[in-house]
Amino acid sequence: MKSSRIMLALVAALAPVALSAQSNDDVHKQIEGLKQQIQALEEKADAAKDMDTRLTKVETKIAPDNIQWGGDLRTRIDSAEWHFKPYQAFMGFAQNPATGMPMPLTQQAQAQDWTNSVQWSTRLRLNMGITINEHAKIMGRLVMYKVHGGADVPVFNGSPNTVANSFNTGKVPSTDVLRVERASLVYHFPLGILSIGRQNTTDGPPFEVRDGGEREATPQALAVNATIDGMGWKFELEKIGLPEGTLLGICYGVGYESGFGGGGLVKTNAAPVGFNFTNVDINTTTGQPNMSKAAMQVNSIGPLKDTTVLGAMYDMPLLFQIGETVQSANFYLGFNRFGNMTDIPFGSLTNFPVPSMPGVAGMPSTQYVTATNNLGDMDQWTATWKHRVGEQFTYFISGGYLKSHPNGKVSQYGAYWDFPAAYGGTQQLAGFGGLMGDPTSSHTATAYYTGMRWDPTEKIGVGVEFNHGSPRWFTYSPATGEYTEKLGARGDVWEGYIHWRFAKNAALRLGYIDYKYSHAFSGWQISPGAMPGQSWEDSYDLSKNPMLQYAFPATVKNTYAAIEVKF
User: Fold this and answer.
1) Euclidean distance between CA atoms 90 and 84, whole angstroms
2) Residue 497 β-bridge partners
3) Which of 179, 392, 477, 498 is deepest in the core (most CB within 10 A)?
């Protein structure tokens, strides 16, 4: 070793001096003593090296062990039947031969039934937690959700959960890529808890009842069930005498980034938003419109404002005893202010209803869509009561209320016509409309969601759920991992299920969901305005042959079976 060589060199250098002053015996004893000291130093150095090697191995082992992993794997089979009532399919406009003015072209679509008897899907969710120190930790979830043999981008079916975007990442079937559903830093301060990053905003209460597990997210499911990036702060109110676990929180998130590098790409840009039918006339020979004369309409997009979510929540758990039965309950109250809401978030899909050929609704290719206008703000209130009686019975009821604050603007997606300058020039004659179907007046909507679960044994759980939404109801829930989003339904939805834990951490779930939609545009915050001479509710009542740009189902019957494994 290096220290040994230094000591030997020192001995060699001092040896002549020692010989001149001392006898050979004395010199020999001193040399032997130095050798023993060198040997002792070498042994200590070897011991230190061995200790360093062992510590390195321990630290290497501790680093990955500091990440706590868990998750679940679900393989599911769905069998669904869709029923569509008659409606008038909007095809565009043509010049009225008598007046030269535009007249709408519609085609009567008869009742239809669609079926998909077998659809397989696999969902893998990996939960992770990393402890940084006694105050800080990182929490995350990675998700892969894929239909067997399905496309990477969903085919548009009129529902917002078939537009692939960051809000429904991991919540709707797409690719076999692991997507980040949650990723946040959580830090405990003396006055409260700070969370920054991709928040726990999916599968909130009371979804845990049917899952037979613990609460997974902060917002109530009836309010928000989407992937949101932002920050939150929770005050722990038990410190001021309220029940243990009582929280008061505020949060802020971004729903659409309009600036450079975000969904808007640049401050202003342009996008194809539909077709201009000005030159479409009637063929005098066939009597049919000359649809090939329509031209793609490209509009300037922006400048836009960021869409934001500002929320507040109050959670209070209760533990009490009635007779000899221990009972627990939770009361949740939430408020969200959606600011500068846009028509469509930046995303991708297949067969968006902007015709590739005039009169043909859809492009047979993957397309990118983006927001075209900020449409206004929306206030949303939700409350949930969950009550667990003993170990076997749990019930819940949630209620939601919202009110729109439109700013007068509408989505730019739609059909256009060029009038003479004196009559206003290019105008949008039909389109996706404004906030809650009315760009100028405020409207309200309500919904409720209730259910129960009975566990007669440790292995068997039986549950029933029901939710109802009014004709204009909207919730910030683009997807829930089901065949289609149920809490955004305008109408009634029933679900029943049996949950059988046949082995440790493994279960079989059998269920049936019955959707009955009353009005079109379920799940959307936008829709066209009322037809002339009609109320909005009558215009888009699915039982009254409404005029629609694409079909909406009146009923969906979905039977499913799933194997669920937790680890």
Assistant:
1) 16
2) 463, 511
3) 477
Residue 109 β-bridge partners? 87
- The token duo for 536 is 């909005």
Q: 84 — phi, psi (to 5°)? A: -115, 125
* pTM for the whole structure: 0.84
Element (H, E) at 334: strand 325-342
d(C-alpha 157, C-alpha 87), whole Å = 15
The closest alpha carbon to 89, from 403, 545, 439, belongs to 545
Tell me the C-alpha distance between 3 and 446, whole Å.
Answer: 82
Nearest Cα to 95, choosing from 275, 285, 290?
290
pLDDT digits (tens, 9 = 90+) for 383-396: 999 999 988 999 99
Cβ–Cβ under 8 Å, residues 416 and 427: yes
* Distance of alpha carbon 313 from alpha carbon 452, whole angstroms: 24
Would strands 374-389 and 414-418 be described as parallel, antiparallel, or unpaired?
unpaired
Q: Give the residue from 509, 504, 511, 510 showing the smallest Cα distance to 566.
A: 504
Give the pairing of strands 269-276 and 414-418. parallel
Helices (H), 66-156: none
Length of the chain: 567
How many CB atoms within 10 Å of residue 231?
15
CA nearest to 66, candidates 128, 152, 159, 153: 128
Tell me the C-alpha distance between 553 and 523, whole Å. 13
Interacting residues of 327 by C-beta distance below 8 A, sequence separation 6+ = 319, 320, 321, 387, 388, 389, 390
Q: What's the pLDDT score for residue 223?
A: 93
Joined together, the tokens standing for residue 376 give 């206004």
Closest alpha carbon to 464 in 456, 474, 454: 454
* 3-state helix/strand/coil string of 427-439: EEEEECCEECCCC
Q: What is the pLDDT of residues 270-319, one digit of tens each?
A: 888 889 999 999 888 888 888 888 988 999 987 889 999 999 999 999 98
